[in-house]
Amino acid sequence: MSDTDDLVRIADAEDVDVTSDAALLGEQPTRSWVVMFAFAVVAIAVFTAIFAPALAPHDPTAQSLVDRLQPPGTADHLLGTDAIGRDILSRIIYGARLSLGAAFLVATLTSVLAVSVGLISGYFGGWVDTVIMRIVDIWLAFPGLILAIAMVTALGRGLDKLVLALVLAGWAGMARVVRGETLQLREREYTMSARVLGVGKIGIMFKHLLPNIMPTILVITALDIGSTILGLASLAFLGVGIGSEVVTWGSMLSEGRNYISTAWWVALFPGLAIFFIVLAVNLVGDWVRDRYDPRSPFRRAKLDAATRKAAEEQEAASVRDAATAGGGG
Amino acid sequence: MTKFVLKRLAHTVIVLLGVSVMVFFLIRYLPGDPLDVLFTQGSGDEVTAADDLAEGRRRFAEGIGMVGSLPSQYLNFLSEIVQGDLGTSIFRRIPVSTLIATTLPLTLQLAIAGQIVNILLSLPLGIVGALKQNSIWDRGGTAFALIGTAMPNFWQGIMLILIFAVWWPILPVSGVMDLGLSVEHITGIPIVDAFVTGNWPAFWSIIRHLILPAITLGASASLVRILRSSLLEVKHQDFMDAYRARGLRERSVTSHMMRNALPTTVVIFGIRLGAIIGGSVVVETVFAYQGMGWLLINAINQRDYPLIQGIVLTFTVFTVLANLLSDIVHGWLDPRVKVEAKT
Question: Which of A293, A315, B229, B311 is the most buried (most CB within 10 A)?
Fold first, then answer.
């Protein structure tokens, strides 16, 4: 939620442009083995989430008072058990379902909402644009997590409402970027010619403008997923909107905190799970940005290098041609 | 400069009005009417006659300003909040403004302590990273920041408790100061009051209680990347070479670089305040630090709507004002901003 919001707001401010090449000049592209590691972690997590029932050694909700608070490595419980004897490994495996599934859902719905609002605002302009952008300003005035908490309070408890609350709390920053891109593309020749050819407004927006802002949308979404996972975990940890009735890493941590003086493993492992998945997702997000963001300095540098090389080759060829021509004459 | 400030001020007023409308509707459009929730659940008191319940409900609705048409309700709400009246907490039966006045200083104290940790970590890492670009220090700093952002701060807090209170018990883990200690109320900020009154045992206790939450809040070193990239942006500009050509020593060149990288850093710091405030809600809950974030989570669990409304509003107003302040400081540091506002 927060970090990309920041970037978005900075990018939108007229005076500072952090996403510009100059500001990012110093960012090195992430090393390839790091990216490989990140992709591997994400792949494993997705695999785990999908095949949770087959992979989990125990039922994540099965209680056993005989086996309560068993340390890691005890027979049959690789990562130990919690205060009512539930297997921590199995709970982490099932927790991946919710963390990844809900984050993916939030990211998708947020993009759909933000893109629709941004396209309409940017394409129609005028008072529609003014009204929408003032609403965006107001939305962005709220601290991200506070707005999410307020939304959850208004909507009530439950996983579906939690997802909806995060979408409603997080769409504004992206809508603003989409609107900015739309404003630029609206005046391009191909948009004009489409309009002259009689393509309707909806057609122009979704057939001609949308594909061209797709890279930006992809980049923002990729950068946002990490903070969405953290936001979900924070709310679950705080017990806002969702409690221990669903197996989540956040609620596991909040239970683990109560036993921290006697059983460190209850809180350690779910936190490690969140940490690794967020780290990996963020690294993948950076990679996506380096690769697909049209404003990315790396992409531009590559393009420049390619253009320069082509120009040099051409020059060399023409020199060679001249030489052969000279030699022949 | 005056024009620039006025322009930003007008924008801020509009945003704050919008924020008040939104908070107003958020609380009134709860799916279950809060009054229904309050007046049907919980009591289980068979003796209470239906009439009494209806009467209580009516009086209560009046009390929290939920009678009359929506526009008039909103105008009442607005005139009350402008006067600093945020209603009365349902469960504590104390004015919300009083509750906020006692918890806000604690949140401020924690947030500032957290930012001191953040700056102490970020400043050296960011500067060394930019000066010795691509060195091992630079890569280490970037990695540190990457890890810091990915680590959930509530987990970081729990792990700090595990290390410094369970395995190696040297620091307290909850509350603002040791039980039995108290400070005279002067500014409301305990650490300042203890210092002013020379109450050293309390002062020491407050610091010890601040260490772990402040590290949790600030150790993500969120400023490293911002500082580093704004320094690098300046580093590669032509006037830096001009300074060197004029024979300035490298140390003076570096100080010029700092001065020019400052405006961007200040603005981004201001923008990040929202995230810092969100973080304080979580950290206060982990360490049972009785600030506004801790109070908010309590209010939610008790469905204390006037209190939730008041806290959300206060947090947001603070963020908006902090953004305004950082913009003004930015305008003051960077003359280009003022010029743009004039044209």
Answer: B311
